[in-house]
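Review session, final week

We close the course with one last complete record, chosen because it touches almost every idea we covered. It is DUF2637 domain-containing protein, a protein from Amycolatopsis keratiniphila with 282 residues. Go through it on your own first, then we will talk.
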Amino acid sequence: MFWKRKIEGEDTPRSRRVRALADQLDEARDVHRLSTDPMLGAVTADRFRVSITRTMWVFLAIGLGFTTTGVHDFLAGDRPIADPLWWGAWLAEPALAGILVTLLRWEASMLSHGVTVDVKPVRYLKRLLLGATLVANVWAGLAPAHGEVSKGMVFFHLVIPLVVFLLAEVMPVIQQTCTRVREQALATVTAPTRENTVRQTAASPAATPAEIQTPRAPTSATFAKLPASIRTTVTSITETAHDAGRPVTAADLTTRVNLPEAMLTTLVDELNASINHHPVTA
């Protein structure tokens, strides 16, 4: 049995191909509407920030693991393994790295809440910790306790501490920029509004439950495609404008919601065409 549509007052059968394309078009519109929702952009930005931060933490830990050996060689020197200082030298870099990691975690948490940490003691402490690691590693590479000087070891004992240092400097920047992207996305999201008011008629001294009215949703094809939170806001705006005896305008909507221009124009026309099946005149 064919689906039918009205064209100029006549019933015209829709072919299977037309029905399939119509379904694909409806799906494409739904996908586009959901993918362009600002709230989805905010969630995506936050998830991306968490993913990048975790990856940076992993590589930072690997780099600090390498520098730990350099600091150990710098402190232990040619001491025998039976010397307690040989074992204690393994604790120097983890202690410095622990302070650095704690500082970076605190800074990342502040930036995730939109608080910028720009205090000189914080920068000085990070640079002192990383600078000490750099000096110890380079020294251990240039004056090894055992064997000859290896150019490769000197190079990596120089480069890896520098990479760790730059990672510690870049991570706050990543946190800050990702947080800014999330905030920009959230700024375009219209929170659901509850402007339901109790309307009491003059003829009745006390309002009954039937007299407590809430904004009624406009009848509109474009309106039905909007997210629930935006539909609530559009309903409130439309009711306010129509109660004032004037049509709703694009300016009314843009102050509260963020919609594409083409959709906004169509939505305004449909909202003004009828509200609860009652035409509105300017």
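Two points worth writing down before the exam:
The beta strands are 3-7, 10-14.
The CA atoms of residues 17 and 162 lie 62 Å apart.
Good luck, everyone.
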